[in-house]
Amino acid sequence: MTDTLADVLHYHRVTKHAPGRYARSAGIMDWENQPNPFRLYSGVPVLPLPFDTPDPTDGHLSLYQRNRNRPRPFDLVAIGKLLELSLGISAWKGAGKSRWALRMNPSSGNLHPTEAHLLIPGGPTGGEGCGGHYSPLTHVLEQRASLPSELWQQLREHCGGDGLLVVLTSIHWRESWKYGERALRYCLLDAGHALAGLSFAAALLGWRLTCLPGLAPARISRMLGFDRIDWPAGETERPDLACWIGCGHRGTPAADLPEALVDRLAALPWAGHPNRLSPAVVDWEIIARTADLAAGPLSAPGLPGTRYHPLMEEAVSSLSGAQILRRRRSATDFDHRHPAIPLAQFRLLLDKTLPRHDLAPFDARLPPPAIDLALFVHRVEGIAAGLYLLLRRGDEIAAMAAEMAPDFAWRKADAQLPLFCLQCGDLRQIASHLSCDQPIAGESAFSLGMIADFETLRREGTPAYRRLFWEAGMIGQVLYVEAEAHGLRATGIGCFFDDEVHRVLGLRSERFQSLYHLTVGRPVEDRRLTTLPPYAEAERLRQRIHGRNPNEESSH
Ligand SMILES: Cc1cc2nc3c(=O)[nH]c(=O)nc-3n(C[C@H](O)[C@H](O)[C@H](O)COP(=O)(O)O)c2cc1C
Hints:
Blueprint: H1 3-14, E1 41-42, E2 46-48, H2 76-86, E3 89-95, E4 98-103, E5 114-120, E6 129-135, E7 140-147, H3 149-158, E8 163-170, H4 172-179, H5 183-204, E9 208-211, H6 217-223, E10 238-246, H7 259-266, E11 273-274, H8 285-293, H9 321-327, H10 343-352, E12 371-377, E13 386-390, H11 398-403, E14 411-412, E15 419-424, H12 428-434, E16 446-453, H13 455-460, H14 464-485, E17 489-493, H15 498-504, E18 512-521, E19 530-532, H16 538-546, H17 550-553
Antiparallel strand pairs: 1-11, 2-7, 3-4, 3-19, 5-6, 5-8, 6-7, 8-10, 9-10, 12-13, 12-16, 13-15, 14-15, 16-18, 17-18
Helix pairs in contact: 1-8, 2-5, 4-5, 5-14, 6-7, 9-14, 10-14
This protein binds flavin mononucleotide.
Flavin mononucleotide binds near residues 109, 193, 329, 330 and 493.
């Protein structure tokens, strides 16, 4: 084992929660220092994105099957729609005097460490493109650089035709303010959610999201001029990954950008001053150290070895794909007096989590899937309550079975899905306890743990640590969205007792590790909160934040 791998595994170990012994954090909510959830770049022109344009009307399955959808041109209306439906504000919530924004993507603690930077084309006449940061608060791009049209053409040619480049970054402090050392895990999970959210919104526009796994964070930083930014102390944005969103007509873009192209982008006069998010930042130094150790390029794109399961094509919702995305919320409570959910819903939900090379969001060209689902089934009609395993990676059970408790039944539980019943029984209390004693994990229809194969780290190297969490976040986003389509609701659960989960599954070595939990059921709405529409006051906010009428400022 290399030293770097040992250090990454060390991070994973010391950030485990156990009953009465949580990973290191401040232990209090330091409200004076609560980070601003909105990053803004000042001193640059802004490009307002339209938000009153009609949503795509295609149905539920068009979230997955982009070929059903007419590809839109890559103009500002469609790019605005992409961002609005993936990373935009979904509503403002209020209680008493407090008001806070929710976003299309969920986030641990609603702290939203993920930011997006874009390189987009000029207008239809092929003018200058632009490199900008997306501000969901006012739904604008802060234009940090102009892209000469000939440079844009080079990028476009390299990536296989029309499209745009999106870079996701994380501000670790936003999460470590509350969660301390465990925060790196949450930032990575949130990035996975955002990636799948972008992939779904792109699919509705007839576009395909493809990652550039070879473009490592340090090169992305240079490419976007991050190395020349005077960051507020402790509030640096660290690139997670870059992806191309195109039509997918001329094949997939190469896995990396040529160094000469990165150099040319890096040489642009990148401008803009990032705002300070907190008066004082606590440095949880193990986070930056581990992020650095895992920051290399990713290897082995593709989905080899995974058995292809045809999509179950029942369209279960009269809602459009866009309406489903807009309704996504986390459940805070479940109705456990209501009848159990139908088996058909359970099967359709699980089906969408299976990786498929031609369907969103798992066609993003990340390395082969490495996560299976351990399911705590509580209340699903026609299926016994108990512990189940969904082998997303194929029907290969040998490695897992060898590790797990010897008395598990391994009974095939579905004719189509790679679903196995390990043990029958009422696991409501156990499931709730495993998720840091949160009732939502036991009062739902089912909850689950996402079990990653850490052999991947030995095979692919430490950068795989990032992509394992992204895969978990993407599975989470699929379940959030699919639950909404069925009139159900999900909640991601980052707080769980790691090794207690492994113990219940009989996992003795460190090879299989639970990275993320999630629960799904029939929600009970919290009627004490007020809800306001996302962008009702956006024009006024734009005036206040960006100064003059931003429409006059744009040089685009
Ligand atoms: C990675 C991750 C971990 C989360 N962990 C928990 C958790 O342990 N308990 C919980 O009640 N909610 C959890 N949530 C849900 C968030 O609190 C929720 O997404 C956030 O408050 C925003 O609300 P919304 O999802 O309704 O937009 C988690 C969400 C994510 C993405």
